[in-house]
Design a protein that fits this description.
Blueprint: H1 6-50, H2 56-83, H3 103-111, H4 114-127, H5 129-151, E1 162-164, E2 167-169, H6 172-208, H7 212-268, H8 270-298, H9 301-306, H10 308-317, E3 323-328, H11 335-356, E4 361-368, E5 371-378, H12 391-400, E6 405-409, E7 416-423
Helix pairs in contact: 1-2, 1-4, 1-5, 1-6, 2-3, 2-6, 4-5, 5-6, 7-8, 10-11, 11-12
Length: 427
């Protein structure tokens, strides 16, 4: 049975031609936009960083580097959509100050980020080799059209000594040679134009993507945080068992013994039985209070029912210091994230009450750019650090389980500002 494949081959040829033309136009657009964009970003970055010692760069660098990141992220999007090359962004979160823009913190947190320097190394590559690989598809497809135009008679309007490639065009014969050269270039463009654009995106990924060392470090950190999470869970289970055994269980056993004695004394000594009954009632109230505290320590009911904002407000009301809680959350995070954030805030507030000597506390919660950001500030004596044996070290491990970060600003004399960030989405 014969099958007509002419339509299939024709469709394939048209699709191939469209792909070549699309690669040429995209490459031309990239070359025209990427070169001035890369030059502008690189120049402004160098000037702004150079001005940091005299103070001007402290204010300009965050804006410039934010622009560089936006330019790099735009190129990541194009690489994924046009070339199927995915280049994940690996920027560290930049702490945000509740009182407004803090140029000092933002500048140096961005400069400490390896991804920032990777962006800056990529810009010179993008304006040189990146420009060439982006322009090459357009050259391979568009430049042959000039050779064909020369053969069609355009050579007559050009001055003597005009060169097309390595062919000097002086008459109709050499114009035909130019058309032949254009045909050869177009032949190579048929095969290499899409590949050249793909090479441009792969070059971008090579320079802009995270290297193996960073990925290995990332895996190591994640492994440690997961191990810390398992250890913390085991310790929490042991604490719950100990509290049940030493607290509510002991009181319930004592209540059982008192009730047994009451049964015996009801007829013999009613007065003593009433005393033991009152004692059993008090023990039941104490046992219930201990069970409520234990449940609140595992997962506060207000957190499950009303969310993180109201849970933190309720937590602040129980503090012995006046406090102010600001919440800007448009939804709720996943329950494990809310629980981790709640207990991290509780630990930080407990440390502030015990050790800071503060007169007032401020808590700010908001969600932006895929991050739950929490700031706890006190007006105490300062000097808080993250170290072995510090409560903040435990908070850092708790947040690390969710790929979160902890930053502490606590100069001598105060104030102390503890900033926590957890990647999450709200629903």
């Amino acid at each position: 049975m014969d099958i007509d494949t002419r339509n299939g081959s024709g469709d394939s040829g048209r699709a191939r031609a469209k792909g070549i033309g699309r690669a040429a136009l995209r490459g031309l657009g990239l070359a025209l936009i990427a070169l001035p964009g890369a030059v502008l970003c690189f120049t402004l970055s160098l000037v702004s960083i150079a001005l940091i010692p005299i103070g001007v760069g402290i204010f300009t660098t965050p804006y410039v580097l934010t622009g560089v990141r936006a330019f790099a992220n735009w190129r990541r999007v194009l690489a994924a959509e046009w070339g199927g090359v995915r280049i994940p962004a690996a920027y560290r979160p930049v702490p945000e100050e509740p009182g407004g823009f803090d140029p000092w913190t933002r500048t140096f947190s961005m400069l400490r980020d390896p991804a920032t320097w990777r962006d800056l190394r990529w810009l010179p590559v993008d304006m040189t080799a990146g420009f060439v690989t982006a322009l090459l598809p357009a050259v391979l497809v568009i430049y042959p059209l000039e050779g064909f135009a020369l053969a069609a008679g355009l050579w007559r309007v050009f001055p003597d000594g005009y060169w097309y490639g390595f062919v000097p065009v002086t008459g109709q014969g050499t114009a035909f040679l130019a058309a032949g050269l254009g045909l050869v270039i177009l032949f190579f463009g048929h095969f290499f134009a899409p590949r050249a654009l793909q090479a441009h995106f792969r070059l971008t990924k090579t320079v802009l993507g995270a290297n193996q060392g960073e990925l290995a470090e990332r895996v190591r950190v994640l492994t440690e945080t997961r191990r810390d999470a398992v250890d913390s869970s085991a310790a929490e289970l042991r604490r719950i068992e100990r509290d049940l055994h030493d607290g509510a269980q002991a009181r319930l056993v004592a209540m059982g013994m008192d009730l047994g004695t009451i049964e015996i004394l009801l007829d013999k000594d009613p007065e003593k039985a009433r005393e033991l009954l009152a004692q059993a009632r008090r023990s039941s109230v104490d046992a219930l209070a201990e069970l409520r505290d234990l449940v609140r320590g595992i997962h506060p009911p207000v957190l499950a029912e009303r969310g993180l904002g109201d849970a933190v407000r309720a937590l602040a009301l129980r503090l012995p210091l006046p406090s102010e809680v600001t919440v800007e959350l448009d939804g709720r995070a996943d329950a494990p994230v809310e629980s981790a954030a709640y207990f991290a805030i509780s630990e930080v507030l407990t440390n502030a009450v015990k050790h800071s000597g503060a007169d007032r506390l401020w808590v700010d919660l908001h969600h932006a750019e895929g991050m739950l950001r929490i700031t706890v500030t006190d007006d105490g004596r300062g000097g808080a650090v993250i170290g072995a044996g510090s409560g903040l070290a435990g908070v850092e491990r708790r947040l690390g389980t969710f790929d979160g970060v902890l930053a502490v600003s606590s100069p001598a004399g105060g104030p102390t500002m503890v900033t926590m960030e957890i990647p999450c989405v709200l629903s």
